[in-house]
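Exercise 7.
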Amino acid sequence: MFAGRYLWWMLMGIGIFMFAALSLDYITWLTIQLSGCGDMAGACEPVLRLISGMLKPACIWAAIGVLFMATLLRLHTLSLIWFWGPVVAVWFVASTPILLFVAADAAALTQPTTLAVLPVAFLFLAAFVIYLMFALEDGDMLPLAASVPLRLTRRLTAVYGALAGVAFMPELSRIAGTLLDMPALSVVIALAQPYLQMVLTFGTGSMAPAYAVLAAFIAALAASLLPHAAAPQPSRSTIMLRRLRR
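Solution. The predicted structure, written as tokens, is:
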């Protein structure tokens, strides 16, 4: 999926999500007012069940599915699916609870308390999605190509972000145990998460290390867009061969 089409599908997914989160509640209210079912007890139940119970969740999950599939197709087009595909999948899973929370109460997104508890995996995902919107396939520059230290920084910080998504997702143990029908797995994840959190925060219990790694990840992505950083560096053998030719 090329950059223009990827951008279009991402805007479509965001549009579906915003429609479900912001507009469907008003549509439900308007439908109830126009139908007059509020005058009879229980008469509005079918409308509420249809719009709020079926249509809204379907739109939310459809939007998440569009965003996820568009990102995977974009990675496949750029030949980055093998490493970044699993990482992005973890970020999406870790970001799903906050997306569902915002969809249930869109006004909460403007509250400072909600902004303060945004999962760090969601911030990693947002930064990477924005990076993929650039036309990386144009010209001679390879996607995510750069010097070895810069590539290593990107990968290490991305793995840290994926581990942080696993460690700081309280619902993970319940979701994994339910989907796989393995209650023992839920117990193992619930016991392992505090230790993983301690390791990722370096024993401080603060999210400051996670935000510092996030800043390094964003800086590495931004540096990848610079021509001098993205250009592949000649190897030592290439340099020696050039000198011999001279």
